[in-house]
Structures are given as C-alpha cells and as structure tokens.
Specification:
Aminopeptidase; 4 helices; globular; alpha+beta
C-alpha cells in the first residue's frame, strides 16, 4: 500500500530484524521528506515490508530501504513492493529511478526491471 500509515518506531524495528542499524532518529522525518513509501502488514497488523522513493519529485527518484521481515522473505513480497514503488514512480511522472544494492541482490533487482550500471558512493568518515 502506498503511504501506508506507519508509526515512527515500526521501520527502525524492521530494519533491525534484517540486521541493519535502526536509525530511530530518521523517523518520522523520513515520511515528511520522501516522495512516497510503500508498506505491507500481516494479519496481526505487524509491518512486514517497507521501502520508499525520495528525490526532488521531478524527473529522477532514488529508491531505498527495501526491507522484508525475515519470516516473510522469498515469498515475492519484496518484488511486489519494488514493483508497486515503480508503478507509483511512473504515475507521479518520474522517468528515472536509481538505487544502490549489494551485488548479492543483483538478480533480485534485475528481476524487478533495474539495469546494473556503474556509479559511486561517498560516505562520511566516522
């Protein structure tokens, strides 16, 4: 569901379940700054999938944080989430959506329609 109502603590908890840093300070500000997000809940109303697209909302958007709860992975939920975000991107007029991913996920993202390309990453030294 696009722009599913999500409590600020839910995405950080989901991030931690997949082994990522929770980034609790990013929420709820992220919901105010991204173009749109998508999420899915299970029959117990637990958030089991999340992802978003950010950018200026003009021609280009950036997809990030495609997360599926470990108990629900490999069931097609991630692919459905990405496809829903791409459909929404198309509906709002984005012509280009980029993302970065670990090489081990290349087959997943090419299966969703992404074409691998070169790029770069800058990260602040901690």
């Amino acid at each position: 569901m696009i722009n599913l109502p999500i409590e600020p603590h839910e995405v950080p908890l989901l991030r931690e379940l997949v082994g990522w840093d929770g980034r609790y300070s990013d929420y709820p500000a992220l919901f105010e700054r991204c173009n749109f997000w998508a999420g899915l809940r299970d029959d117990k109303n637990e958030l089991i999938a999340f992802g978003y697209v950010a950018g200026m909302g003009l021609q280009h958007g950036y997809m990030e944080d495609i997360i599926v709860h470990p108990d629900h992975q490999r069931k097609g939920i991630g692919q459905a989430l990405v496809k829903k975000l791409l459909q929404e991107s198309d509906q709002v007029g984005l012509e280009i959506v980029t993302l970065t991913f670990d090489i081990k996920h290349q087959t997943f993202y090419t299966g969703c329609g992404f074409v691998p390309c070169s790029g770069g990453l800058w990260r602040k030294k901690v």
